[in-house]
Amino acid sequence: MIAYIKLFYDLVGPKLLVLLAVMQLAAIVEGFGISLILPIIQGDQGSESRLATIIDWGFDLISLTPNLTNTLVVLVVFFAIRGALLIAQSWYQSRVLARNLTGMRVGFATAIASAEYEYLSRQDTGVLSNVMSVEIERVNFALSQLLGLMVATTTAIVYIGIALLIAPVVTIFLAVLVLPIAVIMLFLNRLTSRASLQLTDGSNKQQSVFLEMLRNMKYLKSTGRSIPVVRRVVMESRRVGDAYRRLSFLQGATSYGLEPFIVLVLASVIYFFTEVRGANVLEILFLLFVFRTAAVNLVATQPAYRKFISATGSMRVYRELRSKLEDNKEPDSSSNPVPDFTSGVSLKNVTYIYPGQDAPSVNNLSLSIPAKSTVAFVGPSGSGKSTTANILASLLSPTSGEVLMGDQVYEDVNVEQLRENVGYVTQESVVFNASLKDNILLWQEEQIDQSRLDEVIAKTGLNKVRGTHQDDETLGDGGTALSGGERQRLSIARELYWESELLILDEATSSVDSMLEKQIDEVIKNQRGTKTIIVIAHRLSTVRDADVIFVFEDGKIAESGSFEELVKAGGLFSNMAKLQSF
Ligand SMILES: Nc1ncnc2c1ncn2[C@@H]1O[C@H](COP(=O)(O)OP(=O)(O)OP(=O)(O)O)[C@@H](O)[C@H]1O
Ligand SMILES: [Mg+2]
Fold it and tell me: If exposure means fewest CB atoms within 10 Å of the residue's CB, which of 18, 441, 505, 509 is most exposed?
């Protein structure tokens, strides 16, 4: 409990204290107001109780006679103040809650964007998206419940205080009666907490299998293989339903189970007062009212507490994920020197082992790429080309060895600056569900170079897309409204529009027909000498003109040289070339 209050304090800050202070004040003012009823109903009889003495003392303090009119006026004033405080509290509370919700989401999205790629690539998108949309909402809901819980607790404590002032012995006697209830509650709360964690876990899994199903729907539908995948979604949904059922039942059962106890307690009070003490009927009625209010508030704490507990699973998952993202945050390199793009990039004895793997995917590899040269990576599938490109793009840090720009190692340069100068057509096309223009400009609205935009669209053969899609028409989730080759060309167009010093093209034209490929090769050729270009390709025609071709094999470079040199050498490359009829 304390840990969660601390979590909220971390999220909300000192505002939480302000909120609590206002609530406390409202409860105390209410207590004072209610206490004034006692002298009114007692009339001239007077009372021996400590509360009556305090009230007399209060009237003395503001120099008022405690007659009926004055008491009523003070009563009204107290409740007016309470009303104002509660309105202020609810205004402030909604603000705190809304800001907290936005703050958590912004923080989460930012933390993801600043985490290491290596860590992110291993995360389940279903889990991340579930936390972003569902779990964060539940954490905020828990916060609202916690606040409600605190209001009810404070009010109950104030009323118990009043009861103690009127009749201390009975109140303590009641407290003892209530003790077993507290023990049962504690047990039920533990069960609820466990069910809550199951619910969150289940929701995460459900979201992840559901997203997977959506992502692969085309394949699953066309091959009639959706049944086992749908079954997975059904299974996870059932598990979530089960946890939900348990949680709901625990919530309801406890509230209803509590009521008979409360009635028992109240009945005992009436019996004790009338039969044992023979006290003033009005005083008993008032005391009953005080007990009832305390009890109602205590009872009200239970559903709030249970709802709060039922979101503890979400809080735990959210907190763990946030701290993992924090642990895997990229180091801040903003104060490091800007990389020197006039010098080339090189790898020195670089080995890279993917987390959880035994064998290296890049094995003690050294290569040097002179500035503004055009080089090619070729080699069998799985030989480490994309991994090496990711290392050069500073997405992956080598397990051992050094990546250098000139004589600066990557760790010592301003990585943000480095990346701003990297253009990357990744092996998987990157298409946003936005218009063609936004896909290229990445929603930039100012300083748009319209002629450059028109030019890159024309050069990559995207004019047809422009003709068939309205200007503001979106291209579908992941570019479903485009053909495979169009998706690739769009990725190329984006990189041609944006300036870069190091351009990596990983299988950029693998889905493009030969005629268009020639045309795009021409465009890329025009870029030669203006920047460093790395072309990764299986089609060897694409790499014919490269200054140097690096032939990859099992994470190493088997051979390197110009096209003609390599063909002559009669090694792996010449074999590959023969198979592609060169
Ligand atoms: N995220 C990953 N986790 C674990 N292993 C990986 C991961 N990505 C790639 N690998 C492994 O690393 C090796 C090199 O992969 P890489 O993607 O660099 O190959 P490639 O040369 O680009 O192949 P292709 O021509 O098929 O694109 C492969 O054996 C692959 O299984
Ligand atoms: Mg690859």
Answer: 18
